[in-house]
Each structure stands twice: as structure tokens, then as C-alpha cells.
Write a structure and sequence with these properties.
The complex is a heterodimer of chains A (118) and B (877).
Chain A: E1 7-8, H1 13-22, E2 27-28, H2 29-39, E3 44-45, H3 48-60, E4 64-70, E5 76-82, H4 84-117
Parallel strand pairs in A: 1-3
Antiparallel strand pairs in A: 2-5, 4-5
Chain B: H1 3-8, H2 10-34, H3 39-50, H4 53-63, H5 67-85, H6 87-116, E1 127-134, E2 138-141, E3 143-144, H7 145-154, E4 158-170, E5 177-184, H8 188-192, E6 198-199, E7 214-218, H9 219-225, H10 229-232, E8 236-239, E9 242-250, E10 262-265, E11 280-288, H11 294-311, H12 313-316, E12 320-325, H13 326-331, H14 334-366, H15 368-376, H16 381-417, H17 432-454, H18 462-468, H19 475-510, E13 521-527, H20 536-551, E14 556-562, E15 573-576, E16 589-596, H21 600-604, E17 608-611, E18 625-629, H22 630-637, E19 646-647, E20 657-663, E21 681-686, H23 692-698, E22 703-708, H24 716-722, E23 730-736, H25 737-744, H26 746-780, H27 782-790, H28 795-831, H29 840-866, H30 870-876
Parallel strand pairs in B: 5-10, 7-9, 16-21, 18-20
Antiparallel strand pairs in B: 1-2, 1-11, 1-12, 3-11, 4-5, 4-11, 6-9, 7-10, 8-9, 13-22, 13-23, 14-22, 15-16, 17-20, 18-21, 19-20
Helix pairs in contact in B: 2-3, 5-16, 6-14, 6-16, 6-17, 7-11, 14-17, 14-19, 14-26, 15-18, 16-17, 19-26, 19-28, 19-29, 20-23, 26-29, 27-30, 28-29
Classes of the chains: A alpha+beta (118), B alpha+beta (877).
Chain lengths: 118, 877
Amino acid sequence: MPTPQKSDLPQGTLDLLILKIVNLGPVHGYAIAQRLEQVSRGVVQAPEGSLYPALHRLENRALLAADWKQTDTGREAKFYRLTRKGRAALASEEASWNRLTEAVSLILGLANAEGDAK
Amino acid sequence: MNWLARLTRRNKLEHQLDKELLFHIEQHEQDLIARGVPPEEAHRRARLALGGPEQVKEKCRDARGTRWLEDLAQDTRYALRTFRQKPAFAVIALLILALGIGATTVMFTVINGVLLKPLEFPNPDQLMTLHGSTKDFGEFWGFSAPDADDVEKDAHSFVAAAWTYGGGTISNHGEPEYILGRQVTANFFSTLGVPMREGRDFRPEEDKFGAAPVAIISSAVARRHFTQTSNAIGATLVFEGKSYTIVGIFPATFRLAGNADIFTPIHQLSDHRTQRREARFIHVIARRNAKVTPAEAQAELDTIAGRLGRQYPATNADLGMIARALRQEIVGGVGSTLWLLLVAVALVLLIACVNVASLMLARAVSRERELAMRVALGAGLGRLVRQCLTESAVLGIAGGALGVTLAAIGVGPFVALWPGSLPRADEIHVDWRILLFAVGVSLFSGLIFGLAPALRVPVKNLEHALRLGGRSIAGSSRRLHSVFVVAEIALAFVLLASAGMLGRTLLKLSSLDPGLNTHNLLTARFALSPASLTTPAQMRAAWQSVLDQTKTFPGVQAAALADIIPMREGENVGPYSTAPITNPADATSFALASTATPDYLAVTKIPLRAGRFFTNDDKLGSASVVVIDENLARHAFGTTNVVGRRLYVPYVDVAASVIVGVVGHVRHWGLAGDDQSRVQDQIYYPFAQVPDHLIRFFSTVMSLAVRTNGDPAAMIEPLRKELRGGGDQALYDEATMDQLVAASLDSQRFLLLLFGIFAGLALLLACIGIYGVLSYLTSQRVPEIGVRMALGATTREVVRLVLRQSLAMIGIGIGAGLLGAIAAARLLHRLVEGMQPAEPLTFAAMIAILFATALLASYIPARRASHTNPVEALRQD
């Protein structure tokens, strides 16, 4: 399968992405993996091997809760949903992420502008 | 879901994890099939995408957060299982540890009871003792009675109470008995915070000259002399021929500076000594008021001392006053000995740990393959390290439990073995602090001996480790093993050398001349009948009759009276000078002054160097005479040819005394302590010339010295019966001179005994260690040795090969140990009285012992290696 070059996910961002996806409604692990792939349009490589440990970690920190429910096809799967604590964490993580990216792009822009001036 | 629930529902969680991952793979597979991938290919790709299922599961389990607990339970079970598989290993390791931890715990139990526990008084940190100090002769002088009274009156930041020794004969309510006592100020018990068990404390108005005599007694005396202890309160007790009303009984647990059975108010008596500011025999205790710091109390004491110095320049000009923590006074010099022993015992424990570590390491190396396999199956490095540490912690805790049991049994005999009496001995028992200490030590030792194998967990060259399994031996492991042996030998050498130095010291001290003939010499204090303590003439007559009675007793060669007995507690130090002393505070020369009857020299066999000893003609009214020892003669006159010269000894006579004789020096301060003592000079003056006003006091301190024909100890009972008089005279505190001399070296002998035991233990452990490590190392080299033998190496060459390896380790170990031993020698020199400097000969002897035993321990594996059958050895590889 020929794929464009993918970037590794920056440290810590996987949790943020998971929270963001789960925020849309209860969802099982496989669907999260699918969604990650779709949303990032294949640019970001989220290793599936680290998805489940991340989910369990978030569950352990009570940011996520899980229930066993029937899927559309009638199979039993573990559905994750956001807890109140999880929602709060998502909001603050999102804000800090935005601040960070803004700062980074500002610095990059500045560097580019200087480069242009020369 | 809390962690406990998660832990108990572990199986369910595992099941759910399986189900969740399976669901993921199957969904992925179906999606791929729907996109037209062939089923088998879809199955493969779905699995690949997720990664190794076991690794993912491991990571998920880690994410659960209760992982460490689950692992701990699992590791503990695993550890117990492996120990059960190799019971011999477990038993040996356990025994070694139990010995090490047990011995350390015993020492700590004693230290805890004696040094660390707060004193059993309320707010013990406020309690102090006060001492006088002079520039030339340092601290630890008593107070004079007037000084003590002034301090008590003037101090605002603390409350002071005074006491001094007393004691005498009880002669009503049953058998007469001599008991030890104290004279105290009325606030003595309240200052310490000791409530009466029955009755009441002294009242201030009872502590006055001429007040009605009252006493507080011990419950032991109350039990012995009254049918019921409560009957004692209000009863009349005839003590020293005087009737006292018993007002209180103090608690059985109360003790300060030795035992005492009777307390009487100090100011009821008024004798010559209590009015003189230069008679410093009063002990002062004090309690700081709340929120007063020791420095503030000291500052106030300095002010008072300064004022007294200006007011009474003749006696107090140069006298400082110093406050010390009461605890320091009670514990005294025992602290250094105890810490020294703890260090020694910790060294033994360290050797034990190293020993177990090398055992564990040998096992870990042979388990290398198992560990490599587990890494391959997804175990993380941290996880395996933790498992190794759990194993050693289980061993450590088990060893610790056994050790504490040993300690609980052993601490009693240990305290009983202590020479003399250990201060606060009744407070030594196992409590939570001890258990905490033991758990700490166990875990700590577990960590020490578990770390080495844990660090051997393979991370690199997995494939290599898997293929070679336990057969290979990496260089690092061999080096680590050698380090263990070197450490063991070094530690053992430090202990051996210390024991050797102590032994040498003891030999040297024992061979010192005590200055008198110690054999067949009996000493005992004596209490005259209270009835004869009336006029000076009657007291003198009573002493003379006791002396005459003793002299004519069958089995007695000679008898004398003296107030001071060599090497026994109780002494009297006073100033002397070759010129008249106008101000005793100016005196710079001090001597031990003892009074004796004419036969004292015949009894003790102290050599007469010049002149004569006393005769019956030296009495009151004739010229005042003294006999001095050769030290004083040399110090004061520069020669021993001094008979007929004059000496001023204010204690004996304000006018000059004539020196009539010079005798040999007696090691009064003990065989070990005499050379270091500040007071080296000795003066004797005749008992018959003690002035009348002092004879009452001297009657309470005189002792009998008796030279016997046979065993002096056998004479004690017959003499006691002979000298009972009317039933109220008592011989007490008996000791043969041989016992006193031996007792003066007790602490050195005790240290030697313990260091000897520790060194022996260390040697044994080190040998076991060397033997184990070399057996292991040579067994790893069997193929190599096989090749050598196949190529023509002889048995002797193989033995030499193995021994060379161990020789290097022993050599380095002894080298390192030598440095440690030099440090130990310095420490011992500072802490042990009379310690001799380290001698090369002692070290050489210990090196020889260690070398020989270590070589013997390595010879056995070497010999075994030399009997390797080359054919079999080569087939192994």
C-alpha cells in the first residue's frame, strides 16, 4: 500500500486526539482508530499498538469511562465516553495546544520573515 | 472502580482486555475483506497493524495503575516457589541474614534503651546537672553546700535541687540492715517530677537544721521491714541510731546515679563540710523553666558564678559553673562503647549481605537464560529488576523476622554480660522502634544483596544470552564476584585487626604492675554500730576494736583501715604545695589523699622506697606526718630523697606536715585509666591524726583491708559474722583486690570478647563467601580447564591456576582492609581507655590468619577443579 510520508505523532498529543474524538459521542476502540486515520487524512501515523494502552490509561485516570454495548452489527464492544473530568481536561489541553501552536507558528513566521528580508 | 476492586477483579479485566483486542482485529479484518482483500491476507494485516498482542496487553496492564501490586503478589509467590525449589540455598541465606540482622538488632535495642529513649521523667529535656569547673582541672566537680544553696536561691530560669550520698544501718523493724541512701533538698523529687508511690514528698520546712527527722524510703525496704507497705507511712525508723518518721515511699522505677533505699533532707544535718565553700561534694540537678533555652540557663549560671567569685574570692574566684543535659550524665561514657559495637556489628551484617549477594548473583547468572526468555516474551527491564528485588526483599524480611526473634532472646544475656552495670538497663526491651529498625535493616540488606543480580538482567545481546544460557560467564559477572570477595576480606580484616589490637592492649594492660600485691587481699566497707557514733574518742575506740578483732581472726595475716581503696569508686582529691597555701583556689597541684592505719603497707604490700610508714606514735598531738608516693616526690621535689622535707596539705593540716616516707605509685584509677588520669600524685596521712571534728564523717567512709592466708573470698562470711558486734555493725560492699583489678579492665575485656566473636563470625562468613564464589567460578571454567588438561596441564598447574585467581582477590582485599584497619585503630584509640597504638606485628599476625584461612577456603574448589576429567569437560560444550 503506497502511502505518503507520515509524521510521527508528537508526544502527548495522542491523548488529546482521543479525548477530542470521544467527545463526539460514545465510541469503541476500533472506531477511534478509524476516525484518527480519516480525520488526519493519513498524515499522522497513530500506531494502533499504542492506542489501547492510551485508552486504558485515560480510563484509569477517570478521564474516560467505558461500557460494554451492542454495536450496529449486534456484537458486544467496549464503548468509551468522556467523563466530566475528561471534558475539563479536554478543554484545558485544547487551549494549551492552541497556545503552543500559535507560539510555534509565530516563531516560524518570524524566522521566515527574517529569511525573506535577507 | 477503585484499585482494590480492580485488583480483585483482575481475571475479569484480563478477559475483557482479550475481548476488546479481539473485537478490534476482527472488525479490521472484516473491513479489509469488504474492500476486497482475501480473507487470509486480511487476517494477517489486521494482526500486524495492532502490533504484537502480548506487548499491547502488557502495556494495557501497565496502564491500569495497580500493576505494581499485582506484580508484587505474583513476584512474592514466584520467589517463595523458587526458594522452595532450592531449600539449601534459602536456608543458608536465611541463617546468614538472621545472624547479621539479629546481632545488629541486639545492639540497636541496647542503644535505643540506653541512649535514644527519653528519660523516664516528665519533660526530660528540661533536666540538667550542674557542675563546677576550674581552669586547671576541668569540669565535673561537685558544688559546695553553700554554693548550691546560693544557686538554688538566685536562679530564676531554672529550679535547682541538691543531693549527696548518704546511707547507714536500719536497726528496728526486723533484721538490722545497711542501706544506701541520699540526702536531698526538699524539692528534689518535685524537680525531677517523680510523684510518691505512697505518702507524701518532703515539705520545705522539714529541710532545715533542727527540724524533726523525716525519711522517704524505697518500696523494697518498706516490704522487708513492714508487713504491709502502707504500714510504713508514719512509722518510726531507727536509722543510724536516730529515729526518723517515714513520710513517703518512692516508686520502684525511680533511679538516679545508682540505687538508693532511703532519702533524708539534706539541711537537717550540719557538719563541718557543709559550711565550707571549698568542700565540693554536693551534686546539683536542675529543671529549666518552660521556654528557657539551655544557653539562657547557662548564661544565668555564669552570672551567678561570677557574682559568687567576686563575693568569695578565696574559694570561688576561679570557679565556673556548667550545666549539662541530665541524660548525658546518666549515660556517661557508655555511649561511645555502644556506638563502636554497633559499627562492628554493622560490618558483620555487611559481610553477611555481601555473602548472600554473591549467592544470589551465582543463581542469577545461571538463570540468565530464563530472564532472557522473559525479555523476549515482552517483560520490561524495570519489571525484571523489580522481580529480582522482590525476591531479595522476601529473603530479607524473612531473615529479619528470624533475626528479631534471635535478638529478643539474645538481648537479655547480652545486658547481663555487660561489665559493671549498664545505665538504664531496665529500659532495654524490644519495642516498635526496634521493629521499625529491623524492618528497615532487612529491607536495606535485601536491597544491597538484590541489586547486583537485578543489574544483571539482560537487555542487550538477547539472542546471545538465549543461546548460551547459563553456560557462559560474562566478564562483568566474574568481576562483580571478585569485588564481593575483596569486600568480604577487607571487612573481615578490619574486624580481625580491631580484635587483634584490643587483645594486644588487654595483654599489655594486664601485665602492668598495679603497684601493690593484689593476691589474698580482701577489701570491704564497714558501718560501725550507730550506738558508738557519739564522741570522737568512742568512735576511735570502736574502730580500734574492729581492727583488733579482725587482726586476731584466724586466717588473717594483717588488717588495716583506709578511706580509699585502690581501683574502687570513691576518692578524695585535694591540693598540696611545697609552700604554704594561703588560698586553696590558687592551688595547681592535686593529689589523691587517703588516710590509713599503720599496717596498711603490710596489708597491701605497696613497696616502701624510703623512710617509714606510720606507727602508733603518729597520733593527734604529735607532729603531723604524711607519706607520699614516688610520683609526687618527683613532681614536687624532682627527687625521691625527700624524707624529712615539708609538705603543705590543707586537707591534713593548715601547718606543714613532715614527709616521713616515700612509697611506690599505685594505679588507683585502674590499670587502663591511671596513665591518662589528671591526678597522678598520692598522699597518705595517718587515721590517728584525723582531727576530732572530722572523725564522724570519716566513720561513714572507712573500709577494711585484710591480707589473708588463703582465698580471701572465703573469708567474707566468717568475718561478717565475727564483726556483727551487737547485731547492728555491718561489713558490706566486699571485693577482693583481684576482682577490683580485673574490674578495672572489664570494659576492655568485654570489647575484646565481642570483637573476637564478631571477627570470628566475619572470618567464617568470608570463608564461606570465598568458597562459594570460587566453586562457582571454577565450575564455570570447567570446559577451559578441560582443554588445558587435554593439552597437558598437570593437576598442580590447575590448582595453581585457580589459587592465583583467589590470591589476587585476597591480596587486594587485605590491602583495602589495611586502610580500614588503620582508620579503626584511630577510632579505637579515641574511644577505648588505655588503647595501645596499632603495631605492625598485630597486623602481620592478623594478615597471616586471614590469609591462611582464605587460602584454605579456596584450596577445596581448586583441588576439585584439578580432578576434572578432560573428556567429560570437553563433551559438555
